[in-house]
């Protein structure tokens, strides 16, 4: 990829986040060789809802 000028690291990270959002965390944990707790945290970050963000904003107001 580098020979063709494609950004490998950012593409890999994007692919991992897409997989974490689509797969159960335990599957992502096995697939990427990461700790299950890390996979659960990533899944929370990658979710499509803004509920946690909005709740945090309301709590700080």
In short:
This protein is 72% helix and 0% strand. It is built from four helices and no strands.
Number of strands: 0
Biggest sheet character: none
Based on Cα principal axes, name the global outline.
Answer: flat
Q: If you compute it from the alpha carbons, what radius of gyration comes out, rounded to the nearest whole angstrom?
A: 15 Å
Integer average pLDDT: 79
Total helical elements: 4
* Helical percentage: over 70%
Write down the secondary-structure element order. HHHH
Low-confidence stretches: none
The proportion of residues in beta strands is under 5%
Distance between the termini: 46 Å
Which structural class best describes the helix and strand composition? mainly alpha
